[in-house]
Here is the input.
Amino acid sequence: MTAPLLETAGLQAWYGESHVLHGVDLHVNEGEMICILGRNGMGKTTTLRAIMGILRKRTGRISFAGQDMMNVPLHKTARAGLGFVPEERGIFATLSVEENLMLPPKVADGGMSVAEIYALFPNLLERRNSPGTKLSGGEQQMLAMARILRTGARCLLLDEPTEGLAPVIINAIGDVLRQLKQRGMTVVLVEQNFRFAATVANRFYLMDHGTMTAEFPVSDLPNRMDLLHRELGV
Amino acid sequence: MTMIFGIPVQALMGQLLVGLINGSFYALLSLGLAVIFGLLRVINFAHGAQYMLGAFTALLLLTVGGVNYWLALVLAPLIVGLFGAVIERTMLSRLYKLDPLYGLLFTFGLALAIEGTFRYFYGASGMPYAAPGALTGAVNLGFMFLPVYRGWVVVASLVVCLGVWFLIEKTKLGAYLRAATENPVLVQSFGVNVPLLLTLTYALGAGLAAFAGVLAAPVYQVSPLMGSNLIIIVFAVVVVGGMGSILGAIVTGYLLGVVEGLTKVFYPEASNIVIFVIMAIVLILRPAGLFGKDA
Here is the structure.
């Protein structure tokens, strides 16, 4: 059995004095798409930020592709092959769509070419010279994902990509995620919309108060509906 | 004698030239301040001292090493830029997580320390620095004589300002700088070494100040106080242009230099305050400055 591409063990993290993660254990195999579910404030985004190294006050173990990531500086985390798409998308207002797309440096071969990205996201091609923040919410989400796909990152940390978007845009993002899965991209998805996540993810983690309280494959979802309704309040 | 608005054309053009020369220094210095403030959010009160250091470096290179003006124009900004990089890495970078006031106080103290040290060794009076032979003399434009060196100052300043504007607005490095100004943590998460970018930016700002200092040495003489005399005006220029605005710093620098020069012709009594009056009006009408983000 091969080792997971990404693994955390006993991961704890703090915002200042506030202890947010209380020992997160998760693993993601190469080419797998996992989804972390949980209500607001349970530590899902914090988990991604701690893995990425944006949140530096952390203990425990994070390994990626066999490398211990705990002491790796933030700018070297991306070079190791981790790509982060934040919930707020982080589109730069002073840069055009194409400048936003081309901004992250390539970290490895195997990323999508600009032509492939424009084929996947035709809206971005049409608006390539517009200021990044003039895009709609859905287009900004696509741009935020596209710019990481170009870099050759092996693992995508994707924070609530469907939040605040219209159903038709959510479907489009689902299509993109399925295409990424077919290409063998490893994805850690944070979502509250488990019905959307069920169409793309292989496995679910359920998060509550800074720890993982359940882990199950997508095929087990029908048996977990009571748990999800109870934990997610849906 | 040809007159414009009752003023002899020679006098008008002469003051216009003086205004353009002063504007060249304002533009170079405010550009450096804007670059530093834009990314580091530090109000660099040491900028005047770095301008003075540029002039003194050129003078010392000449008197100690026999290095000529042209070489000094390259070496002095590099030396002062390196000094700026060391200051940023070892001291200023420790203050980024604190209130911006700490950066201001630190650079203010640094300016006092640098100027005090030079005043201790060289006194307060100015020392001459000759313009290079190729730039001496004057050209007869028909309506006035244009001193060659002063024309060179305007051209050199314009070229450097446009070069820096191009670097920031049209290159990949500039895109990193602009993006890091908005969200440095995200840019770092893309794999860009933002701490190094901050160091290089401070070095660039200090280098620009030093370049202005070398240009100024043959015009104003080299004095430990030459920077502190100028820095308050330059801050006013940056505020009028819009804090952190690159284009604003350049355009406003030249514009206010010319306005100041013309005021000396039409109403000399107001020439020392006209820039500050404009600053007050701009702050009331457009608090973000003429080219600021909210304007």
Q: What stands out?
A: The two ends of chain B are 44 Å apart (CA to CA).
